[in-house]
Design brief:
heterodimer; A: alpha+beta; Heat Shock Protein 90; B: alpha/beta; Transcription Regulator spoIIAA; four-stranded mixed beta sheet
């Protein structure tokens, strides 16, 4: 049996907006071990940026708090958990609706969750009002799958020839 | 941000140079609005050629500028939008009112 590749990292930082770039670049650097395409990496960076911004703007409402990120690599997929202990989301379904924003005055587009859902393969939001929010996202790096399929196909063809 | 105003065409070109996220957008917004209210252009082009990253904060930023320019009777177009950026703009439908040139 093939060994499944596993790795893990944790990141914790103060909810300052200049840490948004730090967070997405760090996660992208970690994800790079899976050899993603430029596009897959851009998707991950964007999704992380959205979740971290939500924690800072909505979770802590620009007050100081801690944002935590837990990243796991299993096989060819990356799971990213981004959590805050801020005010929480009252209505998750409404928050996930495209173009919905609780802060229209800040020129927020209300596209954050839509982007996370579309750019990642799985996304889940857990939130308790007064306790905080956790966003769990997963992305499968496709490249390996394709390569494995090709190898299997080649092996099958060889066995047929024999 | 670099800006260029072409007087005979009443055209203002704003070349964005920074990563566009919630953190960076405030500065861009302020600078862009200063330039727009200074020149009162008929058309504004936002040039994304040097933008290496953008998230949904970019949608809000473009929409906000569009509202101001529209109020002044002008139009807004986008230029040199890379594939990852286009994916975000297309998702929001904003390209219907702020078209991408070329």
């Amino acid at each position: 049996m093939k060994n499944i590749y596993e790795n893990e990292m944790k990141l914790e930082f103060v909810s300052k907006s200049n840490n948004e770039a730090f967070a997405r670049i760090s996660v992208a650097a970690f994800a790079a071990q899976l050899d993603p395409t430029v596009e897959e990496l851009a998707d991950i960076k964007t999704a992380v940026s959205e979740a971290v911004t939500n924690a800072i703007v909505h979770g802590y409402e620009d007050k100081e708090g801690t944002v935590k990120i837990l990243c796991k690599l299993v096989g060819n997929s990356i799971t990213i958990e981004i959590s805050d202990t801020g005010k929480g989301i009252e209505n998750i379904e409404m928050a996930k609706r495209p173009l919905f924003t609780s802060k229209p005055d800040l020129e927020r587009s209300g596209m954050g969750f839509t982007i996370m859902e579309n750019f990642m393969d799985e996304m889940e939001v857990k939130s308790i009002v007064g306790l905080g929010t956790k966003v769990i996202m997963k992305k499968v790096i496709k490249k390996d799958e394709v390569e494995e399929e090709t190898i299997t196909e080649v092996l099958n063809e060889i066995s047929k020839m024999n | 941000m670099n800006s260029k105003y072409i007087k005979e065409d009443k055209l203002l070109i704003l070349e964005l140079l920074e990563e566009i996220d919630h953190h960076g957008v405030e500065k861009i917004r302020r600078k862009a609005d200063d330039e727009i209210t200074k020149y009162m252009p008929r058309k504004v082009i936002l040039d994304f050629n040097n933008v290496t990253f953008m998230d949904s904060a970019g949608i809000g930023m473009v929409l906000g500028r569009y509202k101001i320019i529209n109020m002044l009777g002008g139009s807004l177009e986008m230029e040199n939008v890379s594939t990852p950026l286009k994916k975000i703009f297309d998702m929001s439908g904003i390209t219907k009112i702020c078209p991408i040139r070329g």
